[in-house]
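This part of the workshop introduces the protein records we will be handling. Backbone structure tokens are a discrete shorthand for how the chain folds in space. Once this layout is familiar, the rest of the handout is easier to follow. The record below serves as our worked example for the rest of this section.
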Amino acid sequence: MECPNCNKNYDDEFRFCPFCGEAQPEPKICTKCEFETYDEYIFCPRCGTELIERTESYVITKLKEKLTKYEKIYDYDNIIECCNKIIELDPSNEEAWTIKGKNLELTNRHKKALECLNKAIELNPSNGEAWFRRGLCLKGLGKSGMGGADQSFNKALECYNKIIELNPSNEKAWHNKATCLYWLKRYGEEIKCYNKIIELNPSNEKAWHNKGTRLSRLGRNEEAIKCFYKIIELNPSNKKAWARLANHFSFSERYEEGIKCYDKLIELDHSNQEKWYYQKGNHLSFLKRYEEAMKCFDKVIELDPNYEKAWHNKGTCLSRLGRNEEARECYDKIDKTGILNLMLYREGMFML
């Protein structure tokens, strides 16, 4: 190209004239076919569209358009590459640092992600997305045991506290804060987080479930049961809540209530029918309703003829009813090659 200052020609690759140091003018570009030129064209020689200057802001705008396309197809590497180009042109572009950090975090490159997110927060301390992703990175490092688990979770906790400071109604921040408190074994504070989420959104099933689970592990079973009933009130088809209730009733020997839960699970969860029929059969056995229990074990065996425990428990029911020969036939169905199955077989035969 020709330098507009000294009129000498030099290669287009130079950004400054090698003879006088004059800055190279920006090329013109066609917004339709993206043809670029340094010549004095007014219209694109390819498609006839009027040319505009290829300014830095134009390039960044085009890169952001590409970013949007890549984000729709989860093309993480190209997203990161676009961010790198934007940052090269505009090092103070907070959005690019945040998006790059987010996509590094999504691909488990936590340490590199932290560098980007720290930069985004440095540029804007109120960047909630950067704080949130930073917390996720630190949580990931904590779970992997890198850099000291407690230290990572405490730092993550600071991130979620900052987000809550910026937006006290952010349910995701409260959830992630609760997770950090769980890993730090601060269970009382964890439950308070779930209470806050429920206060913000009484229909949040996940918060009710997590609260019920934590109360259960702390031995506060009646409070836990209320949580799982609340989930069922919100969503009668929630299989996890029915299963949790069934477990509670089983441990507290409330077998009639447990059977109702298993009936509901049999209705809702067709992929685990043998599991729920087996548990229902056990509860009926505990209540000495052996004939009904055997029907459940028969159903299990129909679904999975190799379900050793079902054969064993059916045999036990028959034995309790004095039908020893039939019981022996059930025990003989147990595969005796495995140590656990052999124990089941011996236990059953010992009862005859």
Notes: Residues 149-166 form the longest helix (18 residues). The CA atoms of residues 181 and 187 lie 7 Å apart. The two ends are 101 Å apart (CA to CA).
